[in-house]
Design a protein that fits this description.
The protein is of the alpha/beta class. It contains 25 helices and 26 strands.
Length: 703
Amino acid sequence: MSPDDHAHAPIARTKNHDTGIVTVPSVCPHDCTSTCALDVERLDARTIGRVRGSQRNDYTAGVICEKVARYAERIHHPDRLMKPLRRTGPKGSKQFEEISWSDALDIVAEQFVAKARQYGTETVWPYYYAGTMGLVQRDGINRLRHVMKYSRYFSTICVTLSDTGWIVGTGAKRGADLREIDEHSELVVIWGGNPVNTQVNVMAHAMKAKKRGAKLVVVDPYRTGTAEQADMHLAVRPGTDGALAVGVMHVLFKEGYADWDYLRKYTDAPDELAAHVADRTPEWASKITGLAVEEIVAFARLFGKSKAAFVRCHHGFSRSRNGAVNMHAVTCLPAVTGAWKYKGGGALYGHTGMYPLDRTLIEGLDVVDTSIRDLDQSRLGPILTGDRDALKNGPPVTALLIQNTNPAMVCPELELVHKGFAREDLFTCVHEQFMTETAAYADIVLPATMFLEHDDFYTASGHTFFQVTKAVIEAPGECRENHHVIAELAKRLGASHRGFGMTPWEIMDETLKKSGMWDAETNWTRGGQDYHLGFETSHFLDGFAWPDKKFRFKPDWAAWGPRGKEMPSLPDHFDVIDNATAEKPFRLVAAPARTFLNSTFTETPSSQKREVQPTAMMNPEDCAALGLADGDRVEIGNERGKTIVRAKAKVGQQRGVVVVEGIWPNRNFETGIGINAVTSADPGWPNGGAVFHDTAVWIRKAA
């Protein structure tokens, strides 16, 4: 069987003999830890019907979010890009003419060569992120980067700080299996996330536990859909999670909930930690977090009494300058009580560190030149506007190849981003599915496939399955997959690597075999390979992933970046956040919406209808103080920019906290620029990261 035949193999397909509809297995690729197994109705060679969750994966277990269930809206949207385009008008004008694929790619290659001749190869910056989480289609751009010695890419916009905060304690990005909570957890704590909006499978498992009698606690600055289901909602001030965790540890040690046998065996500095938190009382934590002392004590006692206490940590920790410290402080809780010893106890942030995947072929890791600078994706605005520090004192970026992301909408400091994209000396090629804000600035726009139109494979973070997919339908018009674009550019640029001459299926199959995993066909036929590590390993009962096998209360922050030496040696409140001031009295949380996913799904009618409009949710007393009624126009701003949204009084968040859900397209704002006009591109500690929930702003009634 040839690689092309794989796209339409009958294995694992089912046919309804009454309707004639064929159902094909697939996997959701969008930027969410759930990586849900799907069953997709294939109506004909180019058309899908309903998308359902599949039962073949017992984590996702048939549950999917509403936006993916209606994927036909997106994949068959009338505004999809179908042909390559060349810009004919000013940047951002959306004035384009159709052009052939061959001519378009020739222009891109010629521009890259010319720019590199003028400034050196580092002037070209391939830029991508998580529009797809498929490893071949997403990460193959790095193979071109490394072969051509284009600027490297420091990925910071999503998980840098939360990853670091978890790993500095445990030693590895893995943890307890969430499926355990269904039957075994006494307490489930959801911290730093809103799975009702973003990871519906987490919520499905949490509700199973709750119906069985387990308690559910949610820590979040506002009353999310998840918090509404909780037995206890702790509405902390943004960026103060570490103080709450430390205040809880004070109670755990003081009132005898610490498991000293576990602490002596499995942790590095229990006596130092106990002494350190002795004066970090609930009263101390209350002043920082804004929570009542009674709330902190009640949560601490509930956690201490619940042997099988499970903490599900989410990516919200990554959105604050002190996010790594906050995440680490929270991971200390099950180590103090020994909750890791129990089925249904311990913690989980992500599982991606468990897969033995060799990414060399996918990303061209065999030709990496570490002398080439790596640029921070979150600092795109400063980079494109010539900030010397952001450019690592190297040449300007004068050429971009963008796949799987929409930075003109999702990046912080949008005014700088837009200013940079408008540069006449900047050549930009965007490979996209729609005419996004970023595509509108491009010189060349290439039409892209969606996940049901190409082959790929996927790790998961929320669960332990590794899954392979095949194309369900043929691509419409002249849409081409990411791999095709990279391989064709490689030909024109003289980039030599055998990965460019292989099909995605061949890359997947060789990678899996080299990694000691099931081959691609076996994985696809069986519906995914479960990499669950077993109870002892997933609960670190055979030791944490450090040479001494001990959880680190005293992490080596300096090993993660030069600013690590500025960070507290033991869990604490690390006060580097953008605190409210008299001039900027509000703290903004730019949270995910339910039916958008970053900038994806903002074009679908059902998502637009559900979300309605950009809205600022505020404490009712704040609304009253500003003379605001629901629906009033309010201006939100700071030194970086401003925008206008609609006000809405919302119970369940502290005064001085404002929440704007969803990364709305800039066109949905009367100012022409979205909420990221006010968010900062400053890197978090110790090693960078976009700080979307760490923003001080002023708010006033719009004129």
